[in-house]
Structures are given as C-alpha cells and as structure tokens.
Design goal:
By secondary structure, the chain is mainly beta. The chain is about 10% helix and about 40% strand. It has one domain.
Length: about 130
C-alpha cells in the first residue's frame, strides 16, 4: 500500500493497487463525507481513495510512521485488509465497489471522523505487500 500526502493541497491518496497499474474510469464523491473521493477502476472495483481535510492530516501521520494494511482472517476464514488511522470504535462504514469490496470507516454516524479503510475480495490479494 502506498499513501501520498500533499501538504500544500492538504490532500492524501491511498493506493489500493500499485500506482499507474489500473485505469481509473470514474471518480465518485462520497456523499457521507465530501472530503473523500473514490477512484473507480475498470479491472478492479476501487483503484484508490482521495482524502482531504482533517482526514488527510491523519494519513500524513500514517505515511510518516510507515504503517500499512493489516491482513485479518476471521474465525470462519473470511479475509480482509484493514488500515486504521485512529484507534476508535467503528460506528459507521460506507461501502463501494463490487459487493462492498472497499469500505471507508468512521467513528461517528455523521461520517465526519474518518478512521480507516477495510478492503476485501480476491482482486486485492497482496495488498499488504504494496
């Protein structure tokens, strides 16, 4: 996983695939939080996530600390990858892509406090190796 941060623009980008590998066919604004935009891909459901404002500042910290997605396997064998930028309980998630492959995680019902991303699906295997 690669996270970039532009301090001048106060924007961060979370790559869910190797940069410049997949074509972005559409960028969708997240209705629940206008600081977040989803780049939809042709070959994979979500290529990356653009994040602005306070949420982007949190990602700048993650980048400096060299954190990455953690692979999680549940007791029943379900697998997903998780990036947490703030240690708070998940109150609401907003899903995108095929069968909700990518979910933005928030600690409040109003979706103002972005705390991470959950990614699931075969197309994202190896995400923890980016």
């Amino acid at each position: 996983m690669v996270i970039t941060y532009d301090a001048d623009a106060e924007m961060a980008y979370i790559y869910l695939a190797k940069p410049a590998t997949y074509e972005i066919i559409e960028t969708t604004e997240v209705e629940e939080n206008v600081d977040c935009m989803i780049d939809i891909g042709r070959e994979i459901p979500v290529v990356g996530i653009e994040v602005g404002g306070r949420s982007a500042e949190k990602l700048a910290y993650v980048k400096r600390e060299n954190n990455h997605f953690t692979r999680v396997v549940t007791e029943v064998g379900d697998e997903f990858f998780l990036l947490v930028v703030e240690d708070q309980p998940i109150t609401k998630s907003v899903a995108f892509g095929d069968e909700g492959a990518v979910s933005l995680l928030f600690s409040d019902k109003a979706c103002t406090n972005f705390i991470g991303v959950r990614v699931r699906g075969e197309k994202y295997r190896g995400l923890d190796d980016l």
